[in-house]
Structure formats: structure tokens, C-alpha cells
Amino acid sequence: MQNKLQELTDRLYQEGLSRGKEDGELFLANAKKQGEQIVADAKAEAEKIILQARQQAQDLKDKAKSDVKMASEQALQATKKDIENLLLSNIIDKAAKETLGKTDFLKEIILCVAKNFSAQESCDLALVLPENLKSELEGWVAGQLEKQLGKQVTAEFSNRISGGFNIGPADGSYYISLSDETFSALICEYLRPLTKKVLFGE
Prior knowledge:
Helix content: over 70%
Shape: rod-shaped
Number of helices: 4
Largest sheet: 4 strands, mixed
Distance between the termini: 119 Å
Order of helices and strands: HHEHEEEH
Radius of gyration: 48 Å
């Protein structure tokens, strides 16, 4: 009886030990498999992060190159424009002031514009002329110009313009500026394409 009990106990022990060993091995195998999966997932995530970081770095590099290129092109265009303006203003501004400061030439221009103006407008005219030409032009406006146009022309002499003139209806509803500044701007626009070609080959 004692032997049978001992035999039963030993058998239960061996079976429990065998089952525990199997369970332990199964647990270890599952743990190993899970560990390998975790490592594989971590590697995949790391590669994804590295790929994204490389793409972001490339995008940043491309954007920086594009921004630098755009800024340099804008700076070049602005510099070219400054050179054009400097050259044209040095040549044209001086020439316009000298030419429009000559009373004979100014009289011809005023008469030509006033005649065309008179053909379209039935009202009397008003002129604004440079103050420094008052002594030379005041009598001419009130005499010869009015006679040739067949209408009254009032002249105001002002320090606001240094050369050229402004013309418009005597009621002051509007005026056309033909000052030395507007002449210079007009001539500069005509000469700008030629200047670009000469300076920059464009």
C-alpha cells in the first residue's frame, strides 16, 4: 500500500514536472516570438523615422535652394533696375530740364498742346508755369498765345514746378502735367528697352 502510494506520488510528480516543463518551454517560445516581433516592429519604425527625417531634410534643402535662387534673382533685377534708373535719370533729367528751360522751345510745346486742347475743349484755359520764367512768358501768354487760340488763357507762375508746365480748363476741374519730371518719365520709358539691351544684352 505504501509502495503504491509512493508510486502514485512519484507518477503525479513526474507528470506535473513534465507538464510544467512543457508549459515553460511554450511560454519561453511565445515570449521569444513576441520579443522578435517587438524588435522587428521597432526596426521598421526606426527605418520609417529615418526615411521621414531624410525626406524632410531633402525638402528643407530644396526649399532653401529655391529661396536663395529666388532672392538672388530678385536682387539682381533690383540692381539692374537701379542701374537703369541711375543712368537714365543722369542723362534724361538734365537734358529735360535744360530743354524745357528754353523759352522758345517751351512756347512751341505750349502752343501745340494748347491748340490740341482747344480743339477738344470749348472752355478757357489755365497754365501753371515755372516761377523763374515769369518775366519771359507772362506777356507772351496774355498776348500771342491768347490771340492764336482765340480764347482766354490765365497763367500762374509757381515754384512747385521747375520746368515744363501744367495745362487744364480754367475752372480747375482737371489738368494735364507736362512738367520736366513727367517728360523725363515718359522719355525714360521709351529708352528703357534700349538701355536694357545696351547694358545687359536683354
